[in-house]
Design brief:
This protein is of the alpha+beta class and about 425 residues long. Helices cover about 15% and strands about 25% of the residues. Helix 4 (about 290-300) packs parallel to helix 6. Residues about 5-10 and about 15-40 have low confidence and may be disordered. The structure holds fe (ii) ion.
Length: about 425
C-alpha cells in the first residue's frame, strides 16, 4: 500500500527518471534494499511542488520542495546532466524525514559555473522504530542553474511583493517574470498574510501556478512583517531556506545575504515586524530590535567584501521602507498603528548605504507604488511596489550591463509602465 494514498492532490511534479542516469541506479538499489515491502507507484506523486532553487551563492545553493506525504529525499547534482553527486540535509549522520517540505544544500560549488540537478523523493513510513518502509525514489526533471559571481557583463532581476496569498496576483507576477526571463526573482515580503498551516504555504509559495517557476531562476525571499505571523511560521525556513553565514557572529541571520550577479551586488535586509517589540500585540513574541542591530553589524562587513565593494551597481532590498516623503510617517517604534517606515533601521543602516554607495533601495509594505529620487542627504533612491489586488500589483524589474542599469515598474494587469529609471555605474 502506498504511503502516499490520500495525499495525491496534484499531478506528479517531474518525470520518474529512467534508472541508470548518473547516480540514480545506485540510489534506487540503495533505497529498495532498505525496505523489502516498499512499492513504487509512479502515478502517485510524493511531491507537492517543483523544486525551489534558493540561496545561490558563489559556493553553495539550496533546493527545497513540498511533499505530499512523509518522505525522505536528496538532490543529485553535477556539472553535466549526468549528475553523479549527492547532497542530503543529513543531521549528525541521520538523513531527513519530513512531512511538508524537504531540502538539500549543495556545497563546494565554484562561482559563475553552471550546474545540473534533480530531486529524489522516497515516501517513508515508520510503523515502529524498526518496522519502516521506504519507496523507490521519484525523480524530478533535471534542471540547471548558474552560481553567483562577478563575471558576466549583464544581469536581470524581478521583484514582486505583498502578494498576501492572492493567487491571481501571484500567478500574474510569475507569468510576467517568465516572459521577461529574469535571472533572479525576489519576493519582497508579505508573501502570505499569516502562516497557520503548511498547506497555505504549499499552495501560495511552493506551487502557486503548477509550473517550475523557481527551479532554474533563484527565488530570493525578503521577509515581510506578515511573514512571521501564525503558529506554523517557525517552519517557514523548511520551504524558504536560509542563507549560510560564514561568520559565527551572524549565524542567526538566516535571511541576510549580499551577493554579486555580474555587474550588480544585491544586499538583502530584514526589517522585521511593523510595531515595536514592546507592543502588546506581540504578546512577548517579538525580538526584532536586537535583530535589526545585528544586521547593521553584518551589513558593515558585507559591504566591505571586495566583490560587493567593486560592483558597478549596488541595490539593497527590505520590506518596510526606510524613507517616506511624509515627515509625519509612522516610524515603527510607537504604539499607534503600524510602521510606514522602519526608522530605527534607517538610523543604523542608512549611514552604511551612504558610505558604501547603495544606489537604490527596493521596498514594499505600503501596497502603493511610489518612487523617491535621491537627494543630497539621502543619495539612494527608493522604490516601493504595489499591493495584493490584481489591479494594484506592480512588478519591478531591472536589467544591468556595463553602461546602465535600467529599472522598470509596471502593472501586472495591463503592463502599463508606472516609471522607468536609469542608473550609471557607481564605480
Ligand atoms: Fe508589509
Amino acid at each position: 500500500m502506498s504511503n502516499c494514498q490520500g495525499f495525491n492532490r496534484r499531478a506528479f511534479f517531474g518525470s520518474v527518471a529512467a534508472a541508470g542516469i548518473g547516480g540514480a541506479a545506485l540510489l534506487a538499489s540503495e533505497s529498495s534494499s532498505s525496505a523489502e515491502d516498499a512499492k513504487n507507484e509512479p502515478s502517485k506523486s510524493f511531491t507537492a511542488s517543483f523544486p525551489l532553487l534558493q540561496n545561490v551563492s558563489e559556493t553553495s545553493a539550496s533546493i527545497a520542495w513540498a511533499l505530499n506525504c512523509p518522505a525522505t529525499g536528496w538532490v543529485e547534482w553535477g556539472t553535466t546532466p549526468a549528475l553523479g553527486k549527492i547532497a542530503r540535509n543529513s543531521e549528525f549522520g541521520l538523513n531527513p524525514f519530513e512531512t511538508d517540505f524537504i531540502s538539500a544544500r549543495i556545497n563546494g560549488l565554484a562561482p559563475n559555473t553552471k550546474y545540473y540537478y534533480r530531486t529524489a523523493t522516497c515516501s517513508f513510513t515508520y510503523k515502529t522504530a524498526y518496522d519502516k518502509t521506504a519507496s523507490e525514489p521519484q525523480y524530478s526533471d533535471i534542471y540547471s542553474f548558474e552560481t553567483s559571481g562577478s563575471k558576466g557583463d549583464e544581469t536581470s532581476f524581478a521583484v514582486m511583493n505583498d502578494t498576501h496569498n492572492t493567487l491571481p496576483t501571484i500567478r500574474g507576477h510569475l507569468k510576467r517574470v517568465k516572459e521577461l526571463n529574469s535571472d533572479l526573482l525576489f519576493w519582497n515580503g508579505d508573501l502570505c498574510s499569516d502562516y497557520m498551516n503548511p498547506e497555505h504555504v504549499k499552495e501560495n509559495i511552493a506551487n502557486p501556478n503548477d509550473e517550475p517557476y523557481a527551479a532554474e531562476r533563484p527565488l530570493i525571499f525578503v521577509p515581510g512583517n506578515h511573514d512571521r505571523r501564525g503558529k506554523w511560521v517557525r517552519n517557514l525556513k523548511n520551504c524558504l531556506t536560509t542563507w549560510r553565514q560564514d561568520d559565527p557572529a551572524f549565524y542567526e541571520l538566516g535571511y541576510n545575504y549580499a551577493f554579486r550577479k555580474g555587474p550588480v551586488a544585491f544586499v538583502v535586509l530584514d526589517t522585521g515586524e511593523d510595531k515595536p517589540d514592546w507592543h502588546p500585540a506581540w504578546t512577548q513574541m517579538a525580538n526584532y530590535e536586537p535583530y535589526r542591530e545585528l544586521q547593521a553589524a553584518w551589513l558593515a562587513k558585507a559591504l566591505e567584501r571586495p566583490e560587493i565593494k567593486s560592483a558597478p551597481y549596488l541595490i539593497a532590498l527590505c520590506h518596510i521602507p526606510l524613507y517616506s516623503p511624509n515627515p509625519k510617517a509612522n516610524p515603527g517604534n510607537i504604539l499607534d498603528q503600524f510602521a510606514t517606515i522602519q526608522w530605527p533601521a534607517r538610523q543604523m543602516w542608512g549611514p552604511l548605504f551612504e558610505k558604501y554607495g547603495v544606489q537604490l533601495l527596493i521596498a514594499a509594505h505600503l501596497h502603493s507604488f511610489g518612487y523617491s529620487e535621491p537627494t543630497a542627504d539621502r543619495p539612494w533612491a527608493q522604490i516601493v511596489g504595489g499591493g495584493p489586488a490584481y489591479d494594484n500589483a506592480f512588478l519591478i524589474h531591472g536589467k544591468a550591463n556595463k553602461d546602465n542599469l535600467t529599472l522598470v515598474c509596471e502593472k501586472i494587469s495591463d503592463q502599463k509602465v508606472a516609471g522607468t529609471w536609469t542608473y550609471k555605474p557607481r564605480v
